[in-house]
């Protein structure tokens, strides 16, 4: 089950980023940031420990979280400090472009051919900052939720009801709650007996993810 | 995967899953550090809505049965929300999983095309 989750998530990530890459290329923008996004996305997902992810196995195709997705280029000497995990294997090693080869791209290549740019031009204010100063800032930005508030608009009704439903229940443990996100084909009630037919669902129970194509539920109210 | 019909809309429901949350948080970080433009992030999230929906529909075959006590139900704007307690899940590989309480958020599979 968990392997299935990993494969599914891998192909979702691949396809989303491929679509995004086409967007970037159509607009003539540099799409190398998407390689960073892949690493950040996969690393965050791995940290949730919802299942076995293919990229966690340090497979030959994907250099994974052995270094910080953004600041990993800073050099191998810093990598153990930044990541807090054992030094990268050969598969995670970054290859620095040899200087003076006529191609003066200031970057490093990962072994899957992705170019990791050292710093994008629009980034400012971070020069010389220590990496440990950056993480807390990110947390604060997350709380402000500039993107999240936009993205969550479509779900405001569901979230309102979530709050209401939660408030009726004692001792809720917040975001760790077991949840099913799905579509429904049918919801039926006869007196106090409910039947519901769900489809295309993602389940999180006890911290693990499951997916189903079709789910049937029976409950008495 | 083929591109969907342009007028087809996709739920944002799956953004609240682990993989959706991981993407949202990563994009939030990238926006705050000016690695990516907010409108690009919005585009990426809408790709996610579509890809996640299509992949679930096209590649997942597993079935699941659920029994439990329905504690709370609500249908608001065509979204059903259930709180079910003392839940037993039966996966079609025979696995049984128990949960004290689970919340189900389900959107209509026949989405009105407006």
From TrEMBL, chain A:
Keyword check for Nucleus, yes or no. yes
Entry-linked SMART domains: TFIIA
Bias (Acidic residues) ranges: 156-176
Q: Name one GO biological process term.
A: transcription initiation at RNA polymerase II promoter
InterPro entries hit by this protein = TFIIA_asu/bsu (IPR004855), TFIIA_b-brl (IPR009088)
**UniProt GO molecular function:** translation initiation factor activity
Q: Spell out the residue ranges making up region: Disordered.
A: 88-177
UniProt keyword list = Initiation factor, Nucleus, Protein biosynthesis, Transcription
Pfam families of this UniProt entry?
A: TFIIA
Membrane-spanning residues: none
Q: What is its main location?
A: nucleus
Taxonomically, the superkingdom here is Eukaryota
Q: Which GO terms describe its cellular component?
A: transcription factor TFIIA complex
Is Protein biosynthesis there in the keyword field?
Answer: yes
Q: Indicate, by first and last residue, each region the UniProt record lists as having compositional bias (Basic and acidic residues).
A: 133-142
What the entry lists under SUPFAM superfamilies is as follows:
Transcription factor IIA (TFIIA), alpha-helical domain (SSF47396), Transcription factor IIA (TFIIA), beta-barrel domain (SSF50784)
The similarity comment for this entry is: Belongs to the TFIIA subunit 1 family.
PANTHER family per the record?
A: TRANSCRIPTION INITIATION FACTOR IIA SUBUNIT 1
Q: What is this protein called?
A: Transcription initiation factor IIA subunit 1
Q: Which organism is it from?
A: Wickerhamiella sorbophila
From TrEMBL, chain B:
Q: What is the lineage of its organism?
A: Eukaryota, Fungi, Dikarya, Ascomycota, Saccharomycotina
Q: Report the function annotation for this chain.
A: TFIIA is a component of the transcription machinery of RNA polymerase II and plays an important role in transcriptional activation. TFIIA in a complex with TBP mediates transcriptional activity.
Q: Name one GO biological process term.
A: transcription initiation at RNA polymerase II promoter
Domain Transcription initiation factor IIA gamma subunit C-terminal, which positions? Answer: 67-109
Record protein name field: Transcription initiation factor IIA subunit 2
Transcription is among the record's keywords: yes
Q: From what organism does this protein derive?
A: Wickerhamiella sorbophila
GO: which molecular function terms? translation initiation factor activity
- Indicate the principal place this protein occupies in or around the cell: nucleus
Subunit structure and binding partners: TFIIA is a heterodimer composed of the large TOA1 and the small TOA2 subunits.
Keywords from the named record: Initiation factor, Nucleus, Protein biosynthesis, Transcription, Transcription regulation
Q: Which GO terms describe its cellular component?
A: transcription factor TFIIA complex
Where is this protein localized, as stated in its record?
Nucleus
Similarity remark: Belongs to the TFIIA subunit 2 family.
């Amino acid at each position: 089950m968990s392997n299935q989750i990993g494969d599914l998530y891998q192909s979702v990530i691949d396809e989303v980023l491929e679509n995004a890459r086409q967007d970037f290329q159509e607009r003539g923008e540099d799409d190398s940031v998407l390689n960073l996004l892949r690493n950040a996305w996969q690393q965050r997902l791995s940290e949730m420990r919802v299942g076995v992810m293919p990229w966690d196995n340090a497979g030959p195709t994907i250099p994974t979280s052995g270094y910080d997705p953004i600041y990993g280029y800073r050099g191998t000497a810093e990598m153990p400090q930044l990541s807090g995990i054992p030094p990268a294997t050969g598969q995670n090693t970054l290859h620095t472009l040899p200087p003076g080869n006529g191609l003066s791209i200031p970057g490093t290549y990962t072994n899957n051919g992705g170019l990791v740019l050292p710093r994008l031009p629009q980034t400012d204010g971070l020069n010389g900052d220590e990496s440990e100063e950056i993480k807390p800032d990110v947390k604060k930005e997350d709380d402000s939720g500039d993107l999240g508030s936009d993205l969550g608009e479509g779900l405001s009704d569901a979230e309102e009801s979530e709050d209401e439903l939660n408030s009726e229940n004692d001792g809720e443990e917040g975001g760790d709650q077991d949840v099913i996100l799905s579509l429904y084909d049918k919801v039926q009630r006869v007196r106090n007996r409910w039947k519901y037919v769900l489809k295309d669902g993602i389940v999180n129970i006890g911290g693990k993810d499951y997916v189903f194509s079709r789910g049937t539920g029976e409950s008495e109210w | 995967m083929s591109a969907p019909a342009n007028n087809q809309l996709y739920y944002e429901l799956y953004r609240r899953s682990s993989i959706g949350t991981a993407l949202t948080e990563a994009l939030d970080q990238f926006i705050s550090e000016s690695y990516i433009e907010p409108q690009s992030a919005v585009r990426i999230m809408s790709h996610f809505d579509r890809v996640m929906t299509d992949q679930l529909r096209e590649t997942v075959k597993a079935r699941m049965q659920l029994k439990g006590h329905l504690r709370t139900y609500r249908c608001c704007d065509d979204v059903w929300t259930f709180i079910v307690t003392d839940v037993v899940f039966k996966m079609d590989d025979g696995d049984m999983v128990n949960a004290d309480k689970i919340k189900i958020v389900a959107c209509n599979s026949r989405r009105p095309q407006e």
